[in-house]
Amino acid sequence: PLTVQRGSRTNPLYGAFVEAGRQAGFELTDDYNGAKQEGFGPMEQTIRGGRRWSAASAYLRPALRRKNVSLVKGFARRVIVENQRATGVEIETRKRIQVVKARREVILAASSINSPKILMLSGIGPAEHLREYGIQVIADRPGVGRNLQDHMELYIQQESTQPITLNSVLNPFSKAMIGAQWLFFKSGLGATNHFEAAAFVRSRAGVDYPDIQYHFIPAAVRYDGRAAAKAHGFQAHVGPMRSKSRGSVTLRSPDPKSKPVIRFNYMSHPDDWTEFRHCIRLTREIFGQSAFDPYRGKEISPGSHVQSDDDLDAFIRDHAESAYHPCGTCKMGRKDDPMSVVDPECRVIGVEALRVADSSIFPRVTNGNLNAPSIMTGEKAADHILGRTPQAPSNQEPWINPRWQVSDR
Question: Taking the CB of residue 165, how many other CB atoms lie within 10 A of it?
Fold first, then answer.
C-alpha cells in the first residue's frame, strides 16, 4: 500500500548532478533501493496523487473501515503491567484518565523518543534511573533510552548563472499558479518535494558499503524556507550515515506530561568531524565537474574562503542539522545482552505481551532515510504478532564495488 514514485526531473540541474558524479568517477545506479545502493541516480518519493503518502494514508485510514479497528484519541501515559504481563494502556482523554484493556498484547509505536519514555514511565528501563523518580521497577533494562542515533547533514550551496532554479518561483504570483495547478490537477511543482536526484557513495578506500548520502535540489533555500539565497542557486544536502556518536532519552520527571530529556550528543566522536569535512570537500569536487560548467556561479555556502580544517569545523559547528532520523533507543538484540530492549520478534525482554514496533528498535541507524525502514518494521512486526511463518530469506546479495579496498569510487 505504500506508493513510491520518482520525480519528473525536468530541471536540467538534476541531470547535471548525476552526470557530475559520473565524471568524478563514481558509480551510477538506477535503483538505490535495489541490489546496488552505491552511485548517483534518481531519488524516490512516497507521494501519491500529489500528496505525501504517509503511513496513516496507506495503512490506518483503510483499516479504520474494518469493524475490528477503532481509533481512540488520547495521551498515552503508561503501559499497565500486572504480574510481568502488559494488560492495557493508561491514557488521558477529555481530561479523564482511563485504561484501555488489552486482551492479547500491547504494541508501542510511539517513536524513538516517546517509546522509551513510555516504557520508563511503565517501570521498564534502567532501574537506578526509575528509582530516582519513585517509579516501581518492573523490568531492569539498562538499554531503554540509550543508543540514540540520528543522521546529520549540511547544505552546500552554489549560485546558478542561469535563471532555471526554484528561486524564480518564490514570488507571490508563481506561488499562486503552483497552488492552483496542484489544487485542480494535483500536479506541477506543488506535487513534488523537489528532491529528485540522489547519491550514496563511500567516503574512502576500505569502506565496503556507502556511508555518505546526498539529496540534490535545484534551489538554494533552507528546509524551513527562510534565508533563501538572493541569487539563483542549487544545493546538495550531504552527511555521513554511520556516525559513531550516541545519545540518550531519559525522564525529566515521573509526570507523563513532562517532556523527556533528549541528548543526541551530536559530533561527540572525533570521526564525525573528519567525515563531515570530507563531505564538504567531496561536494565541491562534484560541483566542480564540467557537467556544472553551464550553471556554476560562486559558492554561496560555506563560501570558497572556507578551506582549512578549522574553518570547516566552524562552519559544521554552526550549520550542521538533524535530518530527523532518530532511532535506536529500544534496540533489538539478544536476551543476554543487557542493552537489548526487544528480542528478534519485537517483544520487550522481561515483560510478556508487550512489543515495540518503530525505529527505536534499530540497533544501528539505517543507510538512508528512516521512513521506509520504519514502515517495514511495522510490516514485519505484524507478521510476528499474527504468528505468520516468515518468508524464506532472500538470496539477493548487495552489490559491492570491486574496487572498495583500493578506492572510494
Answer: 24
Identify whether the C-beta of residue 137 lies closer than 8 Å to the C-beta of residue 130.
yes
Residue 155, φ and ψ in degrees, nearest 5: -100, 125
CA 312, distance to chain mean position in Å, is 25
Give the residue from 158, 375, 130, 383 showing the smallest Cα distance to 286: 158
pLDDT in tens, 150-165: 999 999 999 999 999 9
Residue 229 has pLDDT above 80, yes or no: no
pTM (predicted TM-score): 0.95
Residue 212 and residue 209: Cα distance in Å, rounded?
9
CA distance 391 to 387: 12
Catalytic site positions: 325
- Whether the CB-CB separation of 14 and 218 falls below 8 Å is answered with yes
